[in-house]
Structures are given as structure tokens and as C-alpha cells.
Amino acid sequence: MQHAARAEPVTKTLTAMRNPLVLFVVTFCLFTSLNAQSYKSSYTFQKTPYPVASIQVPYEEDVVTEAVKDYMTGKGYKDSHFKDFIIFRSVSLENGSSGFTDAYFNVTRKSRSEKDITIISLLPVKKGETLAPATEEDSSHINNSMVFLDSMVHHIHHYSLTQEIQASQKLLDKTKAKMISLKNDSGDIAKKIRSYEGELVQNKNDQAKQTQVINSTATGDQDALAKAHKKMDKLLDNQADYEKKLRNYKADLETNTKDRGTQQTLFEKESQSLEALKQRHLSMTK
Predict the structure, then answer these.
(1) What is the pLDDT of residue 93?
(2) N or C end of the chain, less CB within 10 A?
(3) pTM of the full predicted structure?
């Protein structure tokens, strides 16, 4: 299934539109996408070309699909599905018209390399009929279909952008929660490091005292010497254990610090992206 479209100039990709560093880019892209016009195109289904009205919008396919459904259900139409089409029955494509058409929508990304650009195609089919090779009468409905797409595009932008803002906010909240968790972990690790550093200092003091005990014990008192050396061995084992734990916790703290830096950078980037989306949404509502 392919589009053989005589496409008008394509709007900027969403990636470019998300650049928060240059407000002009955001404004320009918003103006371009909001003023995108539908055009006559062709859609090939089961090796048969059909005339369609198409329009391109700078959002991902899944979001645009839901936006189309939201617009149509908001007007009282129920959706059904056939192959790659979303179908709404008995649609009035022209205001005030008594004629009704079954509207076959196909929503697909433009290409693999442009997944943030989606093409909406509207194929008008006579009410109650199945797809058949196009006739002149079918082709005459394309102009009405183009007008219909133009009338719904603002809703597509508003819905899609709102969904992106919500997703961006959710991602930002998740990143912030991760930052808080890392900060709390950092405090816990630092507390353990201080504790073991204190234990190590005390251990070395105890070793010094135990050395004095050993030196002052008479060489003939073998039981006392054995007991003193056994206690010293225990202190030495504890020292090795404390030093190992300190190395591990200091390594954990270093990793935690790096992770916090990474999350902070990510948080700032996501905050900028969210702010850019909000600016676009604000410009759209003015």
C-alpha cells in the first residue's frame, strides 16, 4: 500500500520543533504545521489506486490515529475497522448537505526516517457500499474531503500536542522521581561511609591498646598471650572488613554521583522540551 501523492512542502519534523533554544524555530514550525493544507493524492489498496484527500501533520502515527477518532466520535460517529482503514459511516462531508458518505481514513507515518510526520488520507465511499474502483462521482467527493480534512486539522494539532505534553510531563516526573531517589540513596551511602570510617578509627585505637596489652603481658603467661593475640587477630579481621566496605560504598557513591549528573542533564533537556511544547500550545490557543 503506497501513497502516490503530489505532496505540498512538508512541515518541519517534530524533532526540530522541539528545539527550545530558538523560539523563532518553534513559532515558525507551529505556523507552518497549523497552516498545512490538504491535497489531492492517491492511495493504493490491494493493487488498486483510489483518489483520496490527504494532509500531513508533525506527530507520531499512534497519537494522530487517536486524534482522528477523538474528532469523529466527538461529532457522534462510531468507528469500525477494515484492513488499514478506520471507517466512520454516514458522514456528512459538507456542512448543510443532505448527502452522506462512508469515510475511510488511513493514518500512517510518512516514512521510517520521518516517523514524526504522519499522513492522514480520507477516501470517501458511497454510503453502504464497499470499496470498488473509483468513478467520476467518487473523484468529485475529493474536494469535499479536502475541506473536511482542513476543518479537522486544528483539532488534530490540539489533541496531539496535548497528548505529547502529558507524555512529556509524565516522563519529566519520572526523571525527577529518579533524581530524588538517587539523592536519598546518596545520603544513605554517605551516612554508611561516615559510620565505617568511625568504626575504622575506633578499630585502630583498639589495636594500639591491644598492642600495649601484648607487650606488657609476661612471655611466660602463654594463655594470656594467646588470648591477647586472638583479640588482635579479630581486630585485624574487622579492619579488613571495614576497609572493604568503605571501598564498596565509596564506589557506590561515585556511581551515584555520576548517575545524578546524568539524570540532572536529562531532567534539564526534558524540561526544555516540555516548555517548548507548552509554548507551541500557547501559540496555538492565541
Answers:
(1) 86
(2) C
(3) 0.67
Write down the architecture of domain 14-160 according to CATH.
2-Layer Sandwich (3.30)
Q: What is the pLDDT of residues 137-189, one digit of tens each?
A: 555 688 899 999 999 999 999 999 999 999 999 999 999 999 999 999 999 99
DSSP class of residue 3 equals B
Distance CA 114, CA 14 (A): 9
Strand 79-82 to strand 39-45: parallel, antiparallel, or no bridges (unpaired)? unpaired
What amino acid is encoded at 87 in this protein? I
Burial of 39 (0-12, 13-18, 19+ CB in 10 A): middle
Burial of 9-29, coded b for 16+ CB within 10 Å and e otherwise, reads eebbbbeebbebeeeebbeeb
**Which of these, 8, 26, 6, lies nearest to 18 by C-alpha position?**
26
Phi and psi at residue 110, in whole multiples of 5°? -65, -45
Q: Is 53 helix (H, G, I), strand (E, B) or coil?
A: strand
Closest Cα to residue 160, out of 24, 57, 263? 57
Looking up cell 578499630, which residue turns up? 203
Closest CA to 2 of 57, 84, 62: 84
Picking from 164, 170, 172, 165, the residue whose alpha carbon sits closest to that of residue 264 is 172
Dist CA 56 CA 108 (whole Å): 10
Residue of 42, 57, 56 lying closest to 3 (CA atoms): 42
**What is the distance between the alpha carbons of residues 71 and 220, in angstroms, rounded to a whole number?**
99
CA distance 109 to 14: 13
DSSP state of 135: -
CB 271 within 8 A of CB 172: yes
